[in-house]
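pinned: reference chain
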Amino acid sequence: MALHFEREEYAARLDKLTASMREEKLDAILLFAQESMYWLTGYDTFGFCFFQCLVVKADGNMTLLTRSADLRQARQTSNIERIMVWTDRTNADPALDLKNLLSDLDLLGARIGVEYDTHGLTGANCHKLDNQLQSFAELVDASHVVSRLRLIKSPAEIVYARRAAELSDAALDAAMPLIKPGGSEADILAAMQGAVFSGGGDYPANEFIIGSGEDALLCRYKAGRRQLEANDQLTLEWAGVFAHYHAPMMRTVILGEPTPRHVELYEACRLSLDAITAILKPGTTFGDVFDAHSEVMDERGLTRHRLNACGYSVGARFTPSWMEHQMFHTGNPLEIAPDMTLFVHMIIMDSETGTAMTLGQTYLTTQDEPESLSAKPLDLIIAA
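pinned: its C-alpha cells
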C-alpha cells in the first residue's frame, strides 16, 4: 500500500479521533471530507466528487462506502480494511446504502456526527442523507472534529510541509527569468507548476493565481493569458505541494520603475506582516492576528483596499481549495499553538489607482517566534 506515514502514526490519529468522539458523546462519525479520510487512513482520491463516506465508530471500527471506481484506489492507498460499494444506477440513492450499512453496524438510534461543512458532501447528497437518516439516528454537525485535530502537525507532517515550502521557493525561482517585458503569463505558470512536479510534488488543491496589469488586482484564478509590458505589475499566489501538504506564497512583482503607490502599499504590507509575525505564537488568537493586520492597514487609510481576512491554516488539502477552516478574521477565538502551519497574506487592491500589492508566506509556529518555511526574503521584487 502507498501509505505516506507509518502505521503507528495512523493509529495515533485514530486514537485522537475516538477520544474526541467520546468527548462529543458520538457513537459514530460520518466523514465526507477527503482531507479527513486522507489524514486518518491515507485514502487518496478525487472520487469525493461522488457520494462516498467513511464511517468511524467510537470503538475505532472503520468502513468506507464508495463507488466501484474507487475500490482499488482505497485498497492501494489506505489502511481501510472494510470497503463497501454502492452501485451506479438510474435514480440511485447511496444514502440508503449508507443507512443499511449503519444498521448493520448496530447504529440505529445512535448519536452520529456528520461532516456537513465540506465540498465532499453536496447539497443534493446532503438532502438524501438527511432524508434517510433523520428518523434513523440523532444527527449532529461534527464538521470540525477532524479539522481541529489536523491543526497540529506531527513531526512527520512537518517534514512534508518543509518539502512543500522548498517546492514553493523552486517555483518562484523558475518564474523569475520569465518575468520581463514581453514575457508570457502562460510560460510563467507552466514553469512554476513544472518546478513543483519535477521536484516530486503534486497538483495544488486550487489553481495557482496569476494576473498582470489590471488583472493583478484579482484574488482568484481566471482563464486567459496576457503578455507582460515594460511597466507592469504581476500578482502571483502559488503553493508548493508535497504528499498533498501545501506551503502557499504570494507576491506582487513590479516590472520597470515601481510607482510611489506601489512603494507605499508594499511598506504597509511589510509593516503588517512584521506586526503579525511578532505575535504569531502560542497564546495569540487568530482574531488577534487579524487585528494586528487591520490596525496597520487602517492607520494608513487602506481599510477599503484590504480584505477582511489575512490568512489561514494550511496542511493536506484537496480540491477545490487549499484553505483550511481556521482563518485569521475578526473575533476568531482560536488560539495559536506550536506546530501549526499558517499562511499569512497581505493583500491590498487599490481599484481607484489600479495598483496591486501582496505579500504572503507560510510559517511554522513554535513555542516562541514563528519560523518561515520559505527561504525567500520579503523584499519588494522588481523585475528588470
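why pinned: The first helix runs from residue 7 to 23. The CA atoms of residues 177 and 271 lie 28 Å apart.
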